[in-house]
Amino acid sequence: MSSFAGRMKEYPNMSLDRFDRENLHARAYFLSHCHKDHMKGLKGPLLKRKLKFSLTVKLYCSFVTKELLLSNPKYAFWEDHIVALELESPTLITLIDEASGEKEELVVTLLPAGHCPGSVMFLVEGAQGTVLYTGDFRLAKGDASRIELLHSGSRVKDIKSVYLDSTFYDPRFYQIPSRETCLHAIRGLVQDWVSRSAYHTVWLNCKAAYGYEYLFTNLGDEFHTQIHVKSLDMFKKMPEILSHVTTDRATQIHACRHPKDEEFVPASRLPCGSSASDGTPLNIISIKPSTMWFGERTQRTKVIVRTGASSYRACFSFHSSYSEIKDFLSYLQPINIYPSVIPIGRTHADVTELMLMEKDIQQAQHLHKCLKIG
Ligand SMILES: [Zn+2]
């Protein structure tokens, strides 16, 4: 859960992922993705009023985020103020103080964050140095080295600060199985179940948030079927997802949700009320995507855990593990690291201490490299 207050030390005239309090004075807004904890104040009356009287204030995000946001009528008032940017295409943005006319120029680049549909990181380059705001991210080991715009030529850019998704920045979360590993295991479980009969049905017990689409599209492809969801509204303009979901209940894979009961447990009925049309009871298993982590020394154990006669938990993470974050930071070698999230059960001081340790290690490694070269 992001606790980022919205402003970066280097560029306080822009606000990212927070839209209330002092962020009401921002000259430009940036939204990394459509999760509620990154949208505080975005539909607030004060901001709405500010937009009414402003000619220059814009909200920058990816094309997918724009579609997701505008699929909710509560955000419709943003329509004329949203500027969708292409991924990995540096854009010059001028921040204007509407009272004095004073200008500040920045180059902003959206980089893929691998967290949920439309999610991006913002790379900001300007007079105060190059900074990277990760939003929420799940990057695998080595991914940073493949992002061209983090480099100038063959060298990684000099990054002054990283504002970091530190959800799992804690050695307890040393490794989280890769997305591919988790998908492979879920696919196996689904295959085993749905192949038994047409009455064998799988319910994916997903929370009401974007991020599970990766699961839907891959399972849909694999089993040549569509996944039943409550509504298609939000995917209207995303054909690659839309083609994998349906509101038709006659399918063997469901990700629908009970309209009222959050703790719904299926017996022979699904949350959508569906049961077989000829009266034969359905055989349902539920699979709950959950984050599972493993320590540094523990052997990886199963990514699927059976939690009841017909219920399972399957590993699925939207955020990078501790070792993935360490890999990311040691590759970028930023001067400053600012955590945006406090891991569960930790304090701000714990995270800061870990960050400092990380920097000591990095500096030692750097020195070692320099000595070798010298
Ligand atoms: Zn998120």
TrEMBL record:
InterPro entries: DRMBL, RibonucZ/Hydroxyglut_hydro. Gene3D superfamilies: 3.40.50.12650, Ribonuclease Z/Hydroxyacylglutathione hydrolase-like (3.60.15.10). It is found in: Nucleus. GO terms for molecular function: 5'-3' DNA exonuclease activity; damaged DNA binding; endonuclease activity. Residues 239-343 form the DNA repair metallo-beta-lactamase domain. The keyword DNA damage applies. Keywords: DNA damage, DNA recombination, DNA repair, Endonuclease, Exonuclease, Hydrolase, Nuclease, Nucleus. GO terms for cellular component: nucleus. Belongs to the DNA repair metallo-beta-lactamase (DRMBL) family. This is Protein artemis.
